[in-house]
Each structure stands twice: as structure tokens, then as C-alpha cells.
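Reference record:
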Amino acid sequence: MTAPFIARVLQGYREIGARAGFLALLVALSAALGALIAFPLWLFATASPRAYTVAVIAAGAAAAGAALVRRLLRTGISRPRAAAKALALLAGLAKAALLLAGLFAAAASAARRLYLPAAAAGLVVLAAAAWIGWGVKTGTPRKPRETIR
């Protein structure tokens, strides 16, 4: 074996080591950032569960409101379509509430070791999700595709 060959092999190992070290650094920084975010939230949740629940619900409502405002600003809202968009929004909220209520019922039943009602609630949630996913749509129907002539 020649010296240039050994030097190239060592350089390859050095590059592999540098990439592995960079990956390890990213993992460590990610874990530190996660702990920096999660630890204060955990302290808040364990110190005052009711205040934490209210804060999480308020943050979720604020995020949903901001998303709604951003969508309205992006798409605009015209007077003739205002009612249709409002109905579509209400239908979407009703669908989400239905699915969340079913998931809560299943989880609450499972937590109380009532496995048969939990399974029934889970099946109801799956059936509702399938029903929603298979075309219970709101708004005006889409225009059919034009054929190529």
C-alpha cells in the first residue's frame, strides 16, 4: 500500500466522522431545545392544571382564528359567496366537533376500563370519519371537467 492511498482512506474516515459528529450535534441541540420548551410547560401543567387547560384552549382558539383570518384575507370574500363560505366553515367545525367528541368518549370509556363502550365509541368515530371523508361536502358542486376534443 502506498502513502497516498492511506491518506485518502484516512481523509474519507475524517469526512465520515465529521458528518457523524455534525449529526450528533444536531441531535443534542434538538434535545436541548425540546427540553427548553417542554420543561416550563410541564411545570405549568403540573403546578396549575386548570390554568394550563384554559391557556391551551385559548391558544388553540387564537390559532384557529388566525388561520381563518389569514384564509379570508388570501381568498377574499364576496357578498354572494359569504353565506356559502360561512356554512362551509360551520360544517367543518361541526365535523371536527363530532370527531373530537367521539374520540373523547372512547378515551374516557377506556380510562374507566369500560372497554366495550370504548370500542363502540371508536367504531362510531371511524364510521363518522368515513362518512365525512366519502363526500359529505358543503358549498356548490364542482364544475365537471371538460372533455378534450
Summary: The CA atoms of residues 76 and 82 lie 10 Å apart. The mean pLDDT is 82. Helices lie at 3-47, 49-75, 82-111, 115-133. Residues 80-137 form one domain.
